[in-house]
């Protein structure tokens, strides 16, 4: 930038000083790291007061179907609409279109399968919306594959007999 080489530690130090400065109670906003960058966002404690003051509605929430669809895309991307519908068990045209309209997902390419269906993935706006910097920060889904159907087996008895 402008032909000047600024050492990384100077930039990191400046960001830390800005973060510390705005942590004070006299500020209603603070610096948040999101989507690989930084933003000034309202502190949660002040959000309701500022919304009332500005007479704005709080951020419109996603519908349950849109949230389910978005979750599948986030964890399985790149993924086709057919694969999403197979997981959800219902048509998801409307949810996918709404997520595209909100720029939370985007078309990332076409599959190499028959018909070359479009593949969907999340966008930087998705990361910003959920306040994450990387997809690895997504919550780990419960792993249901660990529970095996053990009908007819009593593992407690096996352990008591010393067979385990």
- DSSP helical segment count: 7
Tell me the CATH superfamily of the largest domain.
Winged helix-like DNA-binding domain superfamily/Winged helix DNA-binding domain
What is the strand tally? 5
Rg, Cα atoms, Å: 23 Å
Largest sheet: 3 strands, antiparallel
User: What's the architecture of the largest domain, going by CATH?
Assistant: Orthogonal Bundle
The structure class reads alpha+beta
- Under CATH, the topology of the largest domain can be stated as Arc Repressor Mutant, subunit A
The average pLDDT is 81
H/E element order: HEEHHEHHEEHH
Helical amount among residues, as a percent range?
40-55%
Beta-strand portion reads 15-25%
Query: In CATH's first tier, which class of the largest domain applies?
Result: Mainly Alpha
Strand order of the largest sheet: 3-5-4
Low-confidence stretches: none
Query: What's the number of structural domains?
Result: 2
